Amino acid sequence: MKKGIQSIFSEVAETYELVNHVLTFGLDILWRKKAAHIASKAGGKLWMDVCSGTGEMAFNLSRQAGEKINVISVDFCHPMFVKAKKKKKRANIHFTLSEASSLPFPDETFDLVTISFATRNINPNKDTLSNHLKEFYRVLKPEGRFVNLETSQPSVKIIRKLFHFYIKLAVKHIGFLLSGSKAGYKYLSFTIPRFYSPGEFSSILHNAGYSRVTCHPLFFGISAIHTAKK
């Protein structure tokens, strides 16, 4: 599973940001900025963005962090990792190549852990997702903050159906046209309608040990920012 996903993201690394911006009409840029602003309330000295991809969320965090907080950008896909490192350098951002399921950090290292539009990729089933969430929990300091930005399921039935229709119609075809990758966007179009509702994901976070779980729906609920504490 990991090798398959790694291959998919290696294939789409060069055009990944462009396709995301096109498919969301640029809303993903605003959503990451909003998530980074919410996440910045964590304070502390060390933040981590896991499954960081090309580093968009990590760079948003680094701007919020200022000079006194360091941001660690973690991803397991080398082409994504390389693309992230090519961006404009900031003194407070550092890169680590690692699997999200087994992070190379001691317990209680980070004041903040974030993940954006990658939770679906660590969700072949609830048990695997929960194990990843527990790993993020492990590296959080007591009272540390977890922020999850991901596609979601609108609560209004007609909006949910329209959203799923758009995903079926657009993601695979536009993704292929812009990236040349059939497998990559076939996979993404499959995972989006099958991700959890806000209530279901909140329950998974609680079961993984987190407390004070909140949800901030975005654009009629097609995406959501979940926050939680250790």
Key features of this structure:
single chain; seven-stranded mixed β-sheet; alpha/beta; 230 residues; Rossmann fold; 9 helices; globular
Mean model confidence by pLDDT: 93
CATH class type? Alpha Beta
What is the helix content?
40-55%
Q: What fraction of residues sit in β-strands? A: 15-25%
3D structure, described in words:
This protein is 47% helix and 22% strand. The chain is built from 9 helices and 7 strands, in the order H-H-H-E-H-E-H-E-E-H-E-H-H-H-E-E. It has a 7-stranded mixed β-sheet, with helices on both faces. Helix 6 links the parallel strand 4 and strand 5. Helix 2 runs antiparallel to helix 7 and helix 3 packs across helix 4. The chain is globular and about 45 Å long. It starts with a helix and ends with a strand. The model has no long low-confidence stretch (mean pLDDT 93).
Secondary-structure topology with pairs:
Layout: H1 2-12, H2 16-23, H3 27-39, E1 46-50, H4 56-65, E2 70-75, H5 78-86, E3 93-97, E4 110-116, H6 126-139, E5 140-151, H7 157-179, H8 182-191, H9 198-207, E6 211-218, E7 223-229
Parallel strand pairs: 1-2, 1-4, 2-3, 4-5
Antiparallel strand pairs: 5-7, 6-7
